[in-house]
Design goal:
The protein is an alpha/beta fold and 218 residues long. It has helices spanning 15-20, 45-54, 68-77, 93-102, 118-121, 149-162, 179-185, 194-197, 202-214; strands at residues 2-5, 28-33, 59-64, 82-86, 106-111, 129-133, 167-171, 189-192. The chain is built from nine helices and eight strands. An eight-stranded parallel sheet has the order 1-8-7-6-5-4-3-2. Helix 3 runs parallel beside helix 4 and helix 7 runs parallel beside helix 9. The longest helix is centred in the C-terminal third of the chain and has 14 residues, at 149-162. The model has no long low-confidence stretch (mean pLDDT 98). It binds D-xylitol-5-phosphate and zinc ion.
């Protein structure tokens, strides 16, 4: 069970301190938005480089951008240990995943709530992680879309059947009240933005999310 706090709604002016708060987590999730693939603009390579420099945990870059085929490799060079791009945006997802892996990072494939994962189940071994979005990407603080849970289960079952250690990540609206539902459905990697950074004690929030997820281990 892996907890990956998203720094999207942290105080980015104090990036190093904000990252320090999540030293008890497994990954730091960095949301890259380009105002084309999603209707919001966050940041790009320089912030990922800075996060890499200051983070106590490895960087999980989530690219919500068009043309990831062109840009994703640069995020590996910037120091991300995991790079996730969207199925809806990639022209050649297999080629791109192989390129990311070839550079030494984990390759993740993200699917929006309305995107079926079925076409990728035969290709699961090409990816280290499948990210099932539990909100429409673009903003933090949105409610968890629980109808995505069958898709989470579909990926988990396909991975088990093939004997793969594929990580299944959920992102969006993950909190103390939704994380167990996702864990029971088969997720093992949980992105949480507001649930961590809007809490009084971010470290405590991470520990609580971990405790709840571990309680559902199957
Ligand atoms: C949404 C981003 C998420 C976001 C999650 O497009 O991909 O990572 O930061 O924020 P919460 O946990 O507040 O939904
Ligand atoms: Zn994200």
């Amino acid at each position: 069970m892996l907890i990956s706090p998203s720094i999207l709604n942290s105080d980015i002016g104090r990036l190093a301190e904000e990252l320090d708060k999540i030293s008890g987590a497994d990954w730091a999730h960095v949301d890259v938005m380009d105002n084309h693939f999603v209707p919001n603009l966050s940041w790009g390579l320089p912030v990922v480089e800075a996060a890499k420099r200051y983070s106590p945990v490895p960087i999980d870059a989530h690219l919500m951008i068009t043309d990831p085929d062109r840009w994703a490799p640069a995020y590996v060079e910037a120091g991300a240990a995991s790079v996730t791009f969207h199925a809806e945006a990639a022209a050649a997802p297999i080629r791109l995943a192989r390129e990311i892996r070839g550079m030494g990072a984990r390759a993740g494939l993200a699917v929006n709530p309305a995107t079926p994962v079925t076409p990728y189940l035969e290709l699961l071994d090409e990816f280290d992680m499948i990210l099932c979005m539990t909100v429409e990407p673009g903003f933090g603080g949105q409610p968890f879309i629980e109808q995505v849970m069958p898709k989470v289960t579909q990926v988990r079952e396909a991975a088990d059947k093939k004997g793969l250690q594929t990580w299944v990540q959920v992102d969006g609206g993950v909190s103390a009240s939704t994380i167990e539902m996702a864990a029971r459905a088969g997720a093992n990697n949980f992105v949480a933005g507001s649930a961590v950074y809007k809490a009084d004690d971010a470290g405590e929030a991470v520990a609580e999310l971990r405790r709840l997820a571990e309680g559902c281990r199957h």
